[in-house]
Amino acid sequence: MKCPYCAYEESKVIDSRPTDEGEKIRRRRECLKCGKRFTTYEMIECLPIIVIKRDRSREQFNREKLMNGMLRACEKRPVSIDMLEKAIDEIEATIQNSLDREVSSEKIGELAMEKLKDIDEVAYVRFASVYRQFKDISNFMGELEKLINKSK
Prior knowledge:
Blueprint: E1 11-19, E2 24-31, E3 37-43, E4 50-52, E5 58-60, H1 63-73, H2 81-97, E6 102-104, H3 105-119, H4 121-131, H5 137-151
Parallel strand pairs: 4-6
Antiparallel strand pairs: 1-2, 2-3, 4-5
């Protein structure tokens, strides 16, 4: 780590402690040449996730867009924001842990439906009806029948 005072590249760590709920590590360092102390922060590098949309265009992953879609599906349902935040955190972690830097919007939609199915079945059907673009009542009924058969 380069010293901000003399630009010497060698320093020693004097103190190290976690910050921000363990998301970062704060390190106090001392330059081995000039002896001055400085602070550095170490954090996990999160590479941006690129979403490939249905029209083949690409955009950066946006948590708010996913949250808005899931919130609309959960409207007037007994689902807390904390439950949705946790589900979105898990979806984002799944995507980050895959080695792909690009993910299709279909994959994100499938992951969201999987989480909503566990949270609230009505919200799941609402989300699926928009996401899968049900054209008529038979598509809607088919999805409901799958849910009913699975719960038996």
